[in-house]
From TrEMBL:
The lineage of its organism: Bacteria, Bacillati, Actinomycetota, Actinomycetes, Propionibacteriales. One of its GO terms (cellular component) is plasma membrane. Belongs to the glycosyltransferase 87 family. This is Uncharacterized protein DUF2029. Residues 89-100 have a biased composition (Polar residues). InterPro entries: GT87. Keywords: Cell membrane, Membrane, Transferase, Transmembrane, Transmembrane helix.
Amino acid sequence: MVLVVGTVVVGAVVWRFGRGLSVGAVVAVAALCQVPGLTQAPITSTDAYRYVWDGRVQLSGHSPYARVPLDDSLAQLRDPVLFPGLSPSEKSGVTEQTPKNPVDDPRTRINRPFVPTIYPPVAQAYFTVVALFTPWSAGTLGLQIAAALLAIALAWLLAVQNPRWAALWGWSPIVAMEASNAAHVDVLAALLVTAAVILTARRPKLAAVLLGAAGSVKLLPLLLLPAFRGRRPIVAIGTFLASYVPHVLAVGTLVLGFLPGYLNQEGFDDGSSRSAILALLLPPEARQVAAAVLALALAALAFHRTRRDPIALTCCWLYGAALLIATPTYPWYGLPLIALAALARRPEWIAVPLASYLAYASFGHDTRQGLIYLAAAVIVVTAITIRHQLVAKSGLTTAPLPANTGERDETHRPRNLGRAR
């Protein structure tokens, strides 16, 4: 609830006093917002411990796709921070390379220690670089600092486009929680996605490479492919696939790690525990079909609208709508959406990651989660409807911003109402 109130307060401050903000002021406050999270261990999840482990395993010359954290062949990599209940000299009792059991183990802080990693290659490269500069005794602190720096860098990138709207990202309590504290890799995905959208007009090939790299951090950014025209989707997919080549050569089909099992466990494969809004109306078997139809319709609409709308706006509603269809219960999945909402100047979409926090706190209560996400969808649709009505009543249209942003300004100019008599 504190995050909800904090986000509303930030939005109100930005709306009331944001016009006079400078790039330096936005970045400075964004940096200050990241400081508290560095003072304690991750709160919202234990993902950062897995990141630390994956980076450490790669530095040792092994693959986190092929070996599980409790594998005794990696016992020399254990330390009291990651394995408070299991020393390097003790046997874990795990004999299989990829056991079926995905549950946690009290001997380690790493989640799902019986299965290999799920994170794609660019994320793995990031983990490895951070691990190279982080002493084992620091635990997750190196990743927390790295995530904070990425969040600040993204605040600067957005502020260069427009300082006022950049504050929605830089000053967001959600970003502060999930970057400097939880160190979620979604911050890197958000930075790459935002850079791709900004560069798409001037450097289309580089933008496509960045989008593919974002997909190789977390798969969700690949949902934005329909918004990128021409050969850019091909380049993005090529970049994504190329990132896997070194790992395929090293471990073959094991390169998928626990990803298929994770998708099954989280309900992404059949929609049984996802699509909470659709679950209010449909049984599980119909939910998957409805979600697929909606996703295809959104992709087609995005492909059509990107010919006339700014790409930032298309990416914003496409990503946000995808989250409303899938309704993940992990709030950090919404970090790229916050950045896109700031870039597209559509703050109503921040209701979606806020809803995911409330859904996260309501885990196990499916109907409640569905109603929470439904409320977020109502907020988004209401804001869009009001905006369109205001534009229609005033007889105004949006004026374009410079081409490098791919956005439109909030200022308006009158339509041609005919010759004056």
